[in-house]
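Write out the 3D structure for:
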Amino acid sequence: MADVAVEPRARVFTLPRRVGPSRPSWSRSAPSTPAPTSTSLGWLAALRLCLAPWALARVAVGLGYLVARIASDELIPRVAYAIPTERQLLAWDGGWYEQLAQHGYRADLRSLRFFPLFPMLGRALGEVVPGGVPVALALLANLAALAAGVVLVRLVVAEGWGRPTAVLAAWLLFVVPAAAPLVLAYAESLGLLLSLVTFVGLRRQRWHWAAVAGFLAALTRPLGLLLVLPAAIEAARGWRSASPRQRLGRLAAVAAPVAGTVAYLGWVQAAHGDWRQPYRLQTTIYQRELAEPLTRLVQSGYDLVAGHHASGLPLPWALLSFALLVVCLRRLPASYTVYAAVVLLVTTSSANLDSFERYALSAFPLIVAGALSIGRWPKLERPVISTALAGLTVYATAIFAGAKVP
């Protein structure tokens, strides 16, 4: 009888050990031979890899909402800034984005601290979506999150880190507790998507992609301005051998995040007479004035020991983030590491660290670093993902109950 080959069952999270360093398939310094199939992944394949973690994350957040809805009075004391569960996906900052989309900035000048692209798109989408602006904002945020996962998976594969690492990165992106705002009507999903597209353009040397995405990212979130640093690093590579037209494209990619930020602040100056107002509002409303990072983290540790969990909880996440930054330094290209480092520096330089996890998630290279690290010990992959999903549910419960600022 002829032998019958039996294909082994594929493991979801397994990452084979790398024998040696691999080059990105789009690097100018890579060999001119065709890229191997291991460094390419189609859009539909990437979408299929992202659907399961994306959907499970929404189930976890939905479960957290139900727990908060049913038992918040018994689990968590009422606090002055509690957000009613009736707001659902428009809780917390989602309500501000809804107001902006429907009435613009003149309805409440405090909304100037929110950058305009996300509510503008929500308003446009609300014209054609049943349910209007509220449904449009939630739909936009969740579809942008799914698209961000797809781009991240393709980016990881194209950089040569392997498909298993890409799968694990997608799971981490969606199910870590800090990913709860990717389900809410927040601008984080859109900002993350545009940052990833910017990196794709930079690494592929598609400077017009990077310029457009960088400009839009800066119109979405204040952190979009920080994309100027990885853009400058990538633009400097091969500058001497670039043609004048290529140099112009590189300069455009570097200038685009600055131009996006200046465009919004210039409008604020023209309309309200003070371009610094968005940043001043952050300090007056959320007490996010600048602080020395090390001192602030030490204070967060004191708060955690003293039982002030709201202000102390960011400390373990900050320590984990800086540990992953070391992994970035050792294993990722310089542009990734610098971007992650500057995002962490900015987010830890605030006197109020309540939303540290959400801001740190913008540093997506940390997700890649986490996937590379966990992938070295395949037996840890499933426990880590399961624990993260449970943590996401707990975080969502606290968010909807008003005990945690997302």
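The chain has 17 helices and no strands.
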